Amino acid sequence: MEKKESEKKNLCRPEVLRDLFSFGDIRSIDALVSNGIITPIMAKERGRMVRRYDKDEATKEYIAYLKGKSKHKSEISADMNDEARKLKADADLKEAKAEIEQMRRDELNGQLHSSDDVKTVMSKLVVEIRGQLLALPGTCAIDCAAARTAKEAETVVKNATLEILKDLQRFQYNKKEFKKLVRQRTEWMNEGEAEE
Fold first, then answer.
1. 13, part of any domain
2. What does the pLDDT average to over 46-60?
């Protein structure tokens, strides 16, 4: 017995593709056809021409369409990820700039000190104490020479040393001195920028 043309080509009705592709209705198959995604085949049934589909070929075309769509989505996703990274980097940069600006304000208000400024102030104190310690033998020499016993000489040296330690103990934080250092540094930095 001779096969019909629809049987020869493995042709099927749109309802078969609808079920195979898990669509809700036939209009989805019509949309795939109108968008050129799957190709219908005109077949003659009961004396009239009807739209049928080669099941295997339509499935291959639909899979190819889905792959292309997936690739496009991943490209869009990659572009969005790049954009998200750029936005995050911009936000991080703005946040860092804001932090730096806040630190500058705190420094100008005397609430934060540069390590260089602290080092300068402490170096001055160390130099001052060092000078007093180096002068200790000269300061004590006359009194030690006048001492009658070693115990008296020891007392003279001890009192002079305690006086130096009291000077060190009287050292107080001086906000004005730090502000002066900040002003000097910012003036120097501003002059450097003006020269460039």
1. yes
2. 89
Structural domain of residue 162, as residue ranges? 114-195
Asked if residue 196 has pLDDT above 60, the reply is no
3-state SS assignment for residue 7: helix
- Does some domain include residue 104? no
The residue out of 28, 43, 67 marking a domain boundary is 67
Which burial class, exposed, middle or buried, applies to 131 when counting CB atoms under 10 A from its CB (0-12, 13-18, 19+)? exposed
- Convert the pLDDT of each residue in 64-120 to its tens digit: 888 887 776 766 666 677 777 787 788 888 888 888 888 888 877 777 777 888 888
The answer to pTM > 0.70 is no
DSSP state of 24: S
Cα dihedral 53/56/58/60 (nearest 10): -170
Phi and psi at residue 12, to the nearest 5°: -140, 165
Specify whether 61 is located in the same domain as 118.
no
**Beta-carbon count within 10 A of 107 CB:** 19
Query: What is the Cα–Cα distance from 82 to 5, expressed in whole angstroms?
Result: 53
Structure-derived torsion over alpha carbons of residues 62, 66, 71, 74, reported in degrees to the nearest 10: 170
Q: How many C-beta neighbours within 10 Å does residue 18 have? A: 16
Instruction: Work out the number of other CB atoms within 10 angstroms of the CB of residue 139.
Output: 15
Amino acid at 159: N
Tokens at residue 192, please? 């450097």
